[in-house]
């Protein structure tokens, strides 16, 4: 938990038409960047205000992707931007304040503090896949799915957050969809990273997110990460310890010569049954997990198939209850393609996004700036 002392507005307080925040009462509910709880003085609704200081290159890219994508998606299982505090002018623009739905905790904290029932596991994975269906239908890869990016409230409602590494699943014509060009960034926390990302396969697909779903399900079932690699080599080693040595077809899908040589030098391994690793788990949960954790991305289960899996039958009533989203053109990520943008160029793009006249999906209207006194 972080206190308000970490914020530069500690001495001034924060007031708008709808919110009044007393500095001494402002405390973090969860931290995604730096987030704090505030209360709507009219409705008494609690929300979170996230502060982003985006003005080095990587943070600027993170912020710009987050702003653009969360404006695009309006989905029950994707965190919503309720509003954005608008700066007076670009000269004073050094921070971004996002008003978001308040979620009390995240799945990482829940897994660490309690044993989850099978019903919990079903419901959380169902909601995660529901969010991914919307993303994937829009041709967006999340690329950093893990328990701490799955926010929860007391009703067990789940919302996917943290879109700073998201990218289009369809690169522009002049950008190749391979590990040497299109996906050169650090993608996903190592423990939840698909093998094709580490091994530089010839292309990356929606399957990288489905691998992460399998890792999250395994962690819920056992209470600990399935692949807690210490480094790149150890990560691959423990994955292959469970999944066995890649087939010839899988081997030739790897474009990195160095990765091929590394795999070739490893001893032959036999597949370890997931039922032996999770002896108390629901057999349907094991089957779904195994289909997510298939080494070959081409054979890995897709999100629509996963939603229809028997393990999720208590919640999968009809595909219409699992909405898709409007497809995003690859040009949506124009700032990610071509020559890298400079710090000031990115600042201008973020400023334009923050000051757009069409606020997100809420009646809130944070039009005022920070004012003295509270």
Automatic annotation (TrEMBL):
Chain ranges of the Protein kinase domain: 21-312
Q: Does the record's keyword annotation contain Transferase?
A: yes
Matches recorded under Pfam families: Pkinase (PF00069)
Q: Which residues form a coiled coil?
A: none
Q: Where is the signal peptide?
A: none
The GO molecular function terms of this record are: ATP binding; protein serine/threonine kinase activity
PANTHER family reported in the protein's UniProt record: MITOGEN-ACTIVATED PROTEIN KINASE
The protein, known as: Mitogen activated protein kinase-like protein
Source organism per entry reads: Favolaschia claudopus
